[in-house]
Amino acid sequence: MTAVLVAGIGNIFFRDDGFGPEVVRHFVREATDDVRVVDYGIRGMHLAYDLLDGVGTLVLVDTVPGPGEPGTISVREVGPEDLGESPMDAHGMSPVAVLANLDTLGGRLPPTFVVGCVPEDLSEGIGLSECVSAVLDEAVSAVRGLVADRKAVV
């Protein structure tokens, strides 16, 4: 079982939606035997399969709509009550759908945290906006802190 899985989520072809993959690209050199770092991009089913193998803690890194200016970083814990119901679609399962249906697939939701960033630009194109690029180090530090805390618990 992996103690901590750090999962980058997002589509690099839609500018700031590539936030998650970019953060894990910066964090990957900190992977260890008990910390797995993966850029899932838009491959929700791959995330589901990896969660079925057993994960102590999941740290998702993704863009999140919400209050705050573009580039605002937030960290929040997510539980089953936050997910609601989301239909299964093996060809395009979002992270919410993966987590909401994990029990249907025979797994369980591990303690889950989201390191999110409010996007500025989700238009077609490659490369993060300036304000999202400017907070990459802050996001990597947030992931590092969660991993350190969770490794101490496991």
Describe the structure.
The protein has helices at residues 19-27, 44-52, 80-83, 95-100, 130-133, 136-153; strands spanning 2-9, 35-41, 55-63, 73-78, 112-117. By secondary structure, it is α/β, with parallel strands linked by helices. β1, α1 and β2 form a beta-alpha-beta unit. The termini are close together. The mean pLDDT is 88.
Low-confidence runs of at least 5 consecutive residues? none
Q: Total number of β-strand segments?
A: 5
Instruction: Name the assembly state.
Output: single chain
Computed Rg:
15 Å
Strand proportion, as a percent range, falls in: 15-25%
- Overall mean pLDDT stands at 88
Largest sheet: 5 strands, mixed
Shape: globular
* Helical amount: 25-40%
Widest beta sheet: strand line-up: 2-1-3-5-4
| Distance between the ends | 11 Å
Task: Provide key terms for this protein.
154 residues, alpha/beta, five-stranded mixed β-sheet, 6 helices, 32% helix
SSE order and pairing:
Blueprint: E1 2-9, H1 19-27, E2 35-41, H2 44-52, E3 55-63, E4 73-78, H3 80-83, H4 95-100, E5 112-117, H5 130-133, H6 136-153
Helix pairs in contact: 1-6
Compact description:
This protein has 154 residues and is α/β, with parallel strands linked by helices. It is built from six helices and five strands, in the order βαβαββααβαα.
